[in-house]
Hints:
This protein is mainly alpha-helical. Among the domains are: 67 residues, no CATH class; 152 residues, P-loop containing nucleotide triphosphate hydrolases (Rossmann fold); 82 residues, no CATH class; 77 residues, Arc Repressor Mutant, subunit A (Orthogonal Bundle), CATH 1.10.10. The strands form three sheets. The chain has a five-stranded parallel β-sheet. It has a three-stranded antiparallel β-sheet with strand order 8-10-9. Helix 33 runs antiparallel to helix 34.
Amino acid sequence: MANEEKWLCEETQKLYERLPDRAPIRQFYFLAHGSELPRVKREKLLKEWKRRFGDPDAGLQRAIDLIHGNTRRSRRGVPLPVPNQLPARGHRPLGRDGLIHKIVEAVRERQDSGNGSLIVLSGMAGIGKSTIAHHVAWILEDRFPDGVLYANLRGFTGEDAQPADPEHVLDRFLAELPPYSSAAGLDGKSAALRSALAHRSVLIVLDDALSAKQVLPLLPGVGTSAVLITSRKTLGDLRSHHEVDLRPVGPLGEEAALELLQEKVSVADRGKHAQAFTDLARLCCHLPLALIVVARRLENRPHHTVDVLARELAEEREKLNVLHLPAHELSVRMALNCSVRALSEEARRLLWQLAVHPGPSIGWDAVMDLGMVGNGMRADRAVEELATANLVELRSDRYRLHDLVRAFARHYVVPVVPGALESFEKATVLQVLEHQLQNVRACDRLLDGQRMLPIGEPNGITVAEPEGLDQAVSLLDEEYDTVLLGIRLAVEQGLEHYMWLLPMALVTYQWRRRRLADALRGLTHATEAAESDASPVERAMFYRMLAGTQWRLEAFEPAANHLRRAILLSEQDDSEAGLLSLARSLHALALTLRKQGCVAEAEEHHRRALVLYRELSDLVGEAATLNGIGTLHYDQGEYDEALRFCADALGVVERTTDLSGRADVLYTLAKIHQSRAERNEALLLYRRACENYRQLENWPNEDKVLWLYADVLVAAGRSPDAVEALERVLVLRERMGGAGVHEVRDRLEGLR
């Protein structure tokens, strides 16, 4: 031993004389000679080094601490070796400063209070967990004088590699922490590690963990050591054994995604192709691995081809081929495959079904209904497994598939299913659409109780029956985007029953939210299906809904044509249902003719409808036609006649529960009284109509009433109340897409 120490002193002396500016040389020189130097000379030497070379780096600082007695030594007085197993330092993770700062501060605070830390970074494949963990470790390594241990646990690797055996990892760790243990077996070695760390302060990085079972034997017990774990799973089982600080890692923000994508792109090219780069980042879903692959591809192609790359990424089948660079060990497809391989058969099947589902999100009941397809499965357990694996995200009580996960599951996952996969896919699609249709219909019944759609009773479908109108509208707000994609799926699959009934069930909601372009698109695509699948009376109803949408878009000529078609279809059925359909079609055409200025023809159709409604004892229809006739007299300035018809209409509608019809009559009466300069009556009626429309969540009609209500308030000298009404109009128009917002703001500016 004496000869070895002499040799070490001589060699470090030679190296130091040749290369004094090298920090590692100074570190070993100080370890070999520092304990022999008097304290004054040591301090003088360190001061000289600091003057020449700046503050000591982490390695030299550890050597100084060892010589000064600030860290552990063996019983023979020789400084204990300090491991530093971190991989080579890489780039700073872009867009992660906030997360990194929070983790670093959390570890520091617990260490300062004498406690250890257990941080789990969890997220989908390619999200950048390891990069963050390594960077955090580089920042924190100086806080841990007894070193840094690192292990790649290979939890999610290719088929040619197995996850790391925790016992083998323990062997490596214990070899770095003398006195060396002779413990045997997993439990014995785990206990030995806890003993070795009890009076040390070590940072441990466990990368790519498969499960809590793999990780638990590698964790310290008491002491101030800290552990950073990365995993594609949330490792929730750890919480029953340790205090865990779970840090989910999500996609990058747009700015950071663009910075990563354009790292080697000139400023001029960034500006020239700004939109294309933004599209690329979006199509990569701001996933760091995908962005790195695309950036690598751009290194070998002219930047004017960025548009071509964006078009390729926009194709779902091509997307994952673009993001596949196996020669550089960069592949989103391979990364996702490792995650999916670790799933149970049921979870893989459900993942595939969720990719068949049109998205963008799906509720719990719909997931459970998917589990009923085929021979059934425990969909609750399967979706929990997918969420734990970060392959689906639970957000606002709805599950979402990342676009890249959806593409992978749709085209690269082959589930184990009963029977032929094609039959199972068709059954899955039908289950998705039937669930949507039954649940939208349940909401639509509360929005329009007068309309009966030919939808059978639910069979094997979970229906969330809303308790009231508010809940029905809220449910449709949540499901709206999903149902639109369901309609598109029905069209793509040529499923006529759903092609026309889903748009029909949704249209009343769309009218009340003024989503008229969506309504027109859905109904237009459904026309052929309705002609093929529906009865004459049902087709008449379909054309009334199509006309009602065009009427609201002020396309009165095509609306009138569709209503004439509805009348002809209704006349083919002399049953009570046919007569009711005829009355409604005549009434709707009368309203349209009024807009076209055909007053006499409009009144004729109203009166024909009125006769039919009275024969059928349909009070709602009777009130609506009386109100329609009153409106025609109002248009002609015949206010007394208008008032008489509308008063009769109010008397009839108040014998029903039809809130919408009542609001319509109140609105017409308010306009009549306003024209007769009967301000107080007009104010009262406008307010009542507005309250009814608000209760119905009918934004366009509430907007219309409030606009006129504000006129009367201003005329009455009540400008503050008018401002309040117009502020509500502003909110409504912003919710409905922003049309007419500037008009409202100008009017408010004039009143304030």
